[in-house]
Design brief:
The chain is mostly helical and 218 residues long. The chain is 66% helix and 2% strand. A two-stranded antiparallel sheet has the order 1-2. The mean pLDDT is 90.
Length: 218
Amino acid sequence: MVIRLEAPPVYEQEIEQMVTRVFFKAIELLGGLSKLAEFRTLTWLPSLARAASAVVLKEEYMKSDEEIAQKIGLTKNTVKNILRADPELALQKIKSLEELASEETKDLKVHTAGGIAKLAYKEIKEGHEAQTLLYYCSLVASEVAKALDVPWAYQILKRTKGIKYPIFSKEDLKERLAGLSIKGNPIEEILSSLHYPLKTPALLIHEIKEYLLMKEQA
């Protein structure tokens, strides 16, 4: 019996979201938009966007080089070069950004962009999301919690605004949430019961909600 492995269905919105996450992480690895502006290398952004798309389509959706080339408007060879790029070499180049900026002034070379995109993708898969995105997710979630009249969630997100994710232990939250009590449960008790690391603001709220539910059912 022959078992055929087929690629999962592709949803445009999912692709867009993942590409955006990789793109923002790639910018973060390069030091952020301010750093790129300082080195007059904002022209690298289109190369990074194309490389992020290629890496996501290959790694997440198992698209062929030809399909990727057709979708993002590159040649098949360019796609191959992006996907063959060495992330470790890219990491070394990022560490010497001034030198990289002088070498690749206007456009980022295909191998460099590919390496950075692959590095960014790996970081995201390991739970290291772009802090810029997490910051705005936290702001939006805070507004939603406020609108839905969930005071404890609003307080948590408000007090942890700007904190760096992932959160690895209760010690990272203790000071910001000191004195808070949720539905009669001291925050110190709640923090001791969460599962770390907490990779996103949404996961932080989910973990607290699960704990409160467990306490209510006990």
